[in-house]
Specification:
Order of helices and strands: EEHHEHH
Structural class: alpha+beta
Helix content: 25-40%
Distance between the termini: 28 Å
Oligomer: single chain
Shape: globular
Strand content: 15-25%
Largest sheet: 3 strands, antiparallel
Radius of gyration: 13 Å
């Protein structure tokens, strides 16, 4: 059986705050962010817009990537996001609550 894991970046509506996480179910996790149902950083700062994600078959690789991205400076994170999503569109807009 092939499992899929995601390292992803959510932003606030005005892109002022970024949240980086890992999940094995991107649709469920984005829905949780959009609904604000999980207390914590992303709820506090309204990180409800999926702006970037990467797919992995190994959870350890996904977690390692998350840790690496969290250490990056803001400018480098913005550069990475814009390589996939130059207009900062909500890539999770078709995921419903």
């Amino acid at each position: 059986m092939y499992n899929t894991y995601y390292t992803y970046i959510m932003s606030s509506p005005n892109n002022s705050t970024l949240y980086i996480g890992v999940t094995n179910d991107i649709e469920r996790r984005v829905t949780e962010h959009k609904s604000g149902s999980i207390p914590g950083f992303s709820q506090k700062y309204n990180c409800c817009k999926l702006v970037y994600y990467e797919e992995y078959s190994d959870i350890n690789q996904a977690i390692e990537r998350e840790k690496k991205l969290k250490k990056w400076r803001r400018e480098k994170k913005e550069w990475l996001i814009k390589t996939l999503n130059p207009d900062l569109m909500d890539l999770g807009k078709n995921i419903t609550i």
